[in-house]
Write a structure and sequence with these properties.
about 300 residues; mainly alpha; two-stranded antiparallel sheet; 10 helices; about 5% strand
Length: about 300
């Protein structure tokens, strides 16, 4: 594969960063649309995305600096190469920092939490799809060995240096599996958003879908650096995926509120009305006679 997309003189343009940046731009553009569908101010949603993105980048880089502080004091120029380091813990810390910063902005901007989460669901899934394409090109989060015809083999030494990818070994293209799953999830959520039954349904479906995608694809990822939970029964991302599925189920529970969605298949709930006509029952003769007498008077 190609961890370096192209060169500009002596400057390397990494495929991972370029693909992730493209995913972020497309996700931001999509968020403007989903914000309108969810009934939110697109400018507020745009600002929330920028705040979360900057916090995620800052949090992940600060973790790398803290973990490599001794070496960076001796070789400060290595700071320029921190962006090339890919690790599940770095991604988790960045995601947590971004989520906290976005939540704080949403509270200060008085954005409704469920509607905001619905608006961000499809764009986030799209961004993750492009991030996994970049991981496939760079060799990050590589798969286990396989003899399948569609296996990928990395030969570039930078793949081994940046991501620890084994060279010359046929591997599962697990990043592609995940990218296709996230892309399908984004398309479904984009279709579902205007048809949701209640606020929070799209966010709950994102948690369910992303959790299932992560849990299943982890079976084909190399376990190096991914942690061990329950004596090796699960790895770290799988444990997080289980929590995501549980949270998604809780988000999809029926809640009382003024919002009346469409549901699936598309239909609107009929509002209850008093009287026999509302239930489709014919009027009794006595009731019909009383109305006729009132007309005669």
């Amino acid at each position: 594969m190609h961890p370096v997309l192209f060169h500009i003189g002596s400057i390397l343009i990494p495929a991972y960063g370029a693909s992730a940046a493209l995913g972020v731009l497309l996700a931001l553009a999509l968020a403007l649309r989903t914000a309108r569908v969810a009934g939110l101010n697109p400018n507020h949603v745009w600002n929330l995305c920028i705040v979360g993105l900057l916090a995620a980048l800052l949090g992940s880089r600060l973790l790398l600096v803290a973990a490599n502080w001794t070496a960076l004091r001796i070789h400060p120029q290595w700071l320029l190469g921190l962006a090339m380091i890919h690790h599940p813990l770095v991604a988790a810390v960045g995601a947590l920092a971004g989520a906290v910063a976005a939540a704080i902005y949403a509270l200060r901007a008085k954005l409704p939490p469920w509607a905001t989460a619905d608006a961000l669901a499809a764009p986030l899934a799209l961004c993750l799809a492009f991030e996994q394409v970049g991981a496939l090109l760079a060799g990050s989060g590589y798969g286990t060995e396989t003899g399948l015809r569609w296996a990928v083999t990395y030969e570039h030494p930078l793949a081994a240096r940046w991501s620890g990818t084994p060279l010359g070994v046929a591997l599962h293209p697990v990043q592609l599996y995940a990218a296709l799953a996230f892309l399908a999830l984004s398309a479904f959520l984009l279709f579902w958003l205007p048809r949701r039954r209640q606020r929070g349904d799209a966010a709950g479906l994102w948690l369910l879908g992303a959790g299932v995608a992560v849990f299943v694809t982890e079976f084909w990822r190399d376990p190096e650096g991914r942690g061990v939970v329950f004596g090796g029964a699960l790895d770290g991302p799988q444990a997080a995926a289980v929590l995501m599925v549980v949270a998604g189920g809780l988000a999809l529970r029926e809640r009382k509120g003024p919002f009346e969605g469409v549901g699936f298949p598309p239909f609107r709930k009929r509002r209850e009305r008093m009287g026999p006509e509302a239930s489709g029952q014919p009027r009794s003769e006595e009731t019909a006679g009383m109305k006729n007498e009132e007309k005669d008077v």
